[in-house]
Design a protein that fits this description.
The protein has about 190 residues and is of the alpha/beta class. A five-stranded mixed sheet has the order 2-1-3-4-5. The longest helix has 17 residues. It is globular, with a radius of gyration of 15 Å. The two termini are about 30 Å apart.
Length: about 190
């Protein structure tokens, strides 16, 4: 019989890393959380070296978090950004997060791949904060980030999405380097 339901899960340790009652103010706090999620995901052997979080831009309230779960969940779309976006959409019961006029921030430990780039547009994100660059990911790990438009930042800007990158880049690169040196631990 064809399954009529898709079930993806986040690792149980994630509740230990975040404080849902805290306001995460500023780019470094937000990307710092995404990087810590990526580091912990590798340390806990629960997925790849990527973390993401969605925040309310107005007050820094954490809406959702995600980590890479591709291999453990046997699902090629279970990237950290996708997981965080899906949880945010379910939590807010909105397929487009900013449809009600609110503004939302996606913080990532590394530059979104081609899949997550597209999801950022359709999910209703207003700001994208990035730690490591795609070049860092490809240099330090075996991952292929896929093709993006040459002016991908400009394409996002034309759609009203502000991009800031290289936030805590060295910390994000350290997680990628550790993962790349030690292989897939899960």
């Amino acid at each position: 019989m064809l399954p009529l339901q898709i079930h993806l899960t986040l690792p149980p340790w994630m509740g230990d890393v975040v404080d849902m009652g805290r306001a995460y103010l500023g780019d470094e706090e937000r990307v710092g959380l995404a990087i810590e999620l990526s580091r912990r995901n590798v340390a806990e052997r629960s997925g790849g070296p990527f973390g993401a979080a969605v925040f309310d831009a107005a007050n820094g309230r954490l809406i959702s978090i995600g980590v890479n779960r591709v291999v453990p969940q046997s699902c090629s779309v279970a990237h950290a950004e996708i997981m965080a976006l899906m949880v945010a959409q379910q939590r807010l019961t909105q397929h487009r997060l900013n449809q009600d006029g609110g503004r939302y921030v996606l913080a990532t430990s590394a530059q979104p791949c081609c899949q997550c780039y597209g999801a950022t547009v359709w999910a209703g994100i207003d700001e994208l904060l990035i730690g490591a660059r795609a070049d860092d990911v490809e240099e330090l790990t075996e991952f292929d980030e896929g093709p993006l438009p040459n002016d991908w930042i400009g394409e996002l800007a034309r759609r009203g999405i502000a991009v800031r990158r290289d936030i805590l880049r060295d910390r994000a690169r350290a997680v990628l380097a550790d993962y790349g040196a030690n292989g897939t631990p899960y």
